[in-house]
Design goal:
It contains eight helices and no strands. It is mainly α and about 240 residues long. The chain has two domains: about 1-105; about 155-230. Keywords: Membrane, Transmembrane, Transmembrane helix. This is Tetratricopeptide repeat domain protein. It comes from Stigmatella aurantiaca.
């Protein structure tokens, strides 16, 4: 499986280079975008970023070209361009090399100086051996609190919060699966081979199904939390009754 993925990446990179040499810049970018999620090693990411920067530079997209060069040079500051390019693209590439080296130097942790040990004092003052006869401070007892009543009062509100938390978790996970489904649909549209497109569509359907189930669970948990909150009895506040003289 890893060998097949590597062959797919190398094939897409070679096809993008061929299209660039034939001045088919847009088609070359399509191949590079298809190969980008299939890069598995830093070397592959560097090769992809350099070729993408070259294509974008010749298309006049200087900002994206600089970003692609910078990302590749952060992985390998000594990388070289794989093709002969225009002088302006070569200047931009060398400028990004200097910037990448400066950024890498900033990220290096500072070297701490060795700690110097302070020699002990020759004549240390003697500690007094006189015992401390000061009595310890007297702590006043904590005021009485109706613990059982407090626990009962707080326990009536635990279930709604637990249901609300479960609903929030289900909503968050459902959102993740929904985004995953959209990503799979996008990958299916960008796929070149039919079997890969079908696999992405199957992943999209599965993720969408899980997302719908989790959204339903989130809605049910939220409704249950609201219902238990409204039906929970409030704290009793009976005033003490005093007998008349």
């Amino acid at each position: 499986m890893a060998t097949q993925a590597q062959e797919d990446f190398q094939g897409a990179l070679a096809e993008a280079r061929r299209l660039y040499e034939e001045l088919e810049y847009e088609q070359a970018l399509v191949q590079l975008q298809w190969a980008k999620p299939r890069a598995r090693t830093p070397e592959q990411e560097v090769a992809l970023g350099l070729l993408e920067g070259i294509v974008l530079g010749d298309m006049g997209e200087r900002g994206p070209s600089l970003a692609a060069f910078h990302a590749a040079l952060l992985l390998d500051p000594e990388a070289k361009l794989p093709l002969k390019v225009a002088p302006k693209v070569a200047r931009d590439f060398e400028e990004m090399r200097r910037r990448a080296r400066a950024d890498l130097l900033k990220k290096q942790p500072p070297v701490s100086a060795p700690s110097q040990e302070v020699p002990p004092s020759v004549s240390a003052p003697r500690q007094s051996l006189k015992p401390d006869l000061t009595p310890p401070p007297v702590r006043s007892p904590a005021p009485y609190a109706p613990v059982a009543e407090t626990q009962a009062r707080s326990g009536r509100r635990v279930l709604p919060w637990a249901l609300a938390g479960a609903g929030a978790v289900a909503l968050g996970v459902g959102t993740v699966f929904g985004l995953k489904s959209r990503a799979s649909v996008s990958d299916a549209r960008n796929g070149v081979f039919l079997d890969e497109t079908r696999a992405h569509l199957e992943d999209a359907r599965g993720s969408a199904g899980v997302a719908n189930v989790l959204f339903g669970v989130a809605g049910a948990a939220s409704a249950a939390a609201l219902g238990t909150w409204l039906l929970a009895p409030g704290a009793s506040s009976k005033a003490p009754v005093t007998e008349a003289p």
